[in-house]
Amino acid sequence: MTITLALSKGRIFDETLPLLAAAGIEVLEDPEKSRKLILPTNRPDVQVVLVRATDVPTYVEYGGADLGVTGKDTLIEHGGGGLYQPLDLNIARCRVSVAVRHDFDYAHAVRQGARLKAATKYTSIARDFFAAKGVHVDLIKLYGSMELAPLTGLADTIVDLVSTGNTLKANRLVEVERIMDISARLVVNQAALKLKREPIRRIIDAFASAIPKD
Ligand code: AMP
């Protein structure tokens, strides 16, 4: 009975490694060097599949993977339906924020009831946030480099992930609202949880014991 774990390259992969180590699982190839999409581990019954961050919930929901690690941002946009979410792993932490050009008067625009143009990958989060504030917003869906949108006049604001704030600063953008704190979650396929109960439980318990403290 093979256990398949879906991860995305980069922060999620790197920060999941210590949790895997706590479960006695060591990934045998470096995804930055290998072109393989299925990575073997030291355990013959455990493999890691590399998928795009936004595809992790889909893989796990439909059983392409038994488990996955994915950001709360991605889960909210996906809807999270059908997924068991046993753990907040407290890794890959960042926040979803609203940012504008340094010379854009956001407070004034909001006070005047102006119609804002907001560029984002996070259309659900942005729609709910501006609706709750009673701000009229036209959402422009982008898939990357959100920071460029206010600089080119495509949008007044962006809704994006901020970690250190360095990317905003480098592009002379200013964070004007923090929408929510983000961290990565462990998600589990519901059927796999029943069919592969013991090995999956052991992984969940090992991950739980290794969650980094604040
Ligand atoms: P920073 O310059 O540290 O504020 O990082 C901001 C850039 O990194 C933005 O382009 C974000 O989309 C991306 N980013 C920050 N944190 C994360 C995360 N936890 N997961 C994925 N992308 C992130």
Report on the structure:
- The protein has 214 residues and is an alpha/beta fold.
- The chain is built from 9 helices and 11 strands.
- The chain has helices spanning 11-22, 56-61, 72-78, 106-111, 123-133, 148-152, 166-170, 190-195, 197-209; strands at residues 3-7, 38-40, 46-50, 67-71, 83-88, 94-101, 116-120, 137-141, 157-162, 173-182, 184-189.
- The protein has a 6-stranded mixed beta sheet.
- The longest helix is centred in the last third of the chain and has 13 residues, at 197-209.
- It is elongated and about 60 Å long.
- The structure holds adenosine monophosphate (AMP).
- The site of adenosine monophosphate has 12 residues, from strand 9 and helix 7.
- Which band does the percent of strand residues land in? 25-35%
Q: What is the first-to-last residue Cα distance?
A: 35 Å
User: How helical, in percent, are the residues?
Assistant: 25-40%
| Main β-sheet, spatial strand arrangement | 2-3-1-4-11-5
Low-confidence stretches: none
Radius of gyration: 19 Å
**Helix run count:** 9
* Morphology call: elongated
Please outline the major beta sheet. Answer: 6 strands, mixed
Which ions, cofactors or small ligands are bound in this entry?
A: adenosine monophosphate
SSE order, one letter for each helix or strand: EHEEHEHEEHEHEHEHEEHH
What's the mean pLDDT score?
97
Number of strands: 11
Counting helices, strands and paired strands, the structural category is: alpha/beta
